[in-house]
Amino acid sequence: MPQFDTTTFISQLFWLAISFGMVVFCFARIFIPRFNAILEKRFLKIRNDSEQAEQMQAEAQALFDKSQVRLDETRKDADKMIKMTIANLESNREKHLAMMQSELQKGLKAIEKAHEDQLMTLHEQLAPIAQTCAIQILDRLTIPATDASLFHLNDEGQMHAPN
How far apart are the C-alpha atoms of 145 and 151, rounded to whole Å? Predict the structure, then answer.
């Protein structure tokens, strides 16, 4: 085997050292700085992005807090409006109820008055009819009509003999 030939060990070690040195030099001067630059850019970008995310999260939290405050204020305003509307409806209901009760009272009084008028008219019309009926009944009972004139109707429609 030619690799184990002792006469070429020194030249192989020389070229090994030169090749290894060039590889180390290339890595140290070219590749590692480029990798470091890329890693540093990534690190800076990640750090900037995380700072921006923290700022945005803080802004979002502030906006959320403001919206909660506005929402609470809006709910309070809505509750006030609802209470005012309920109070207005209640007062309007009371007014309408009172107005309807007064109209019903007026209507009831008008009906009672009409009923009394009709009752009075009926009593006025009933008196002559009752007198004629009494005369006819007495005629049928064979009481002479002259005796029937002795009976008169009082205000309640009952017959009584004059004194």
Answer: 10
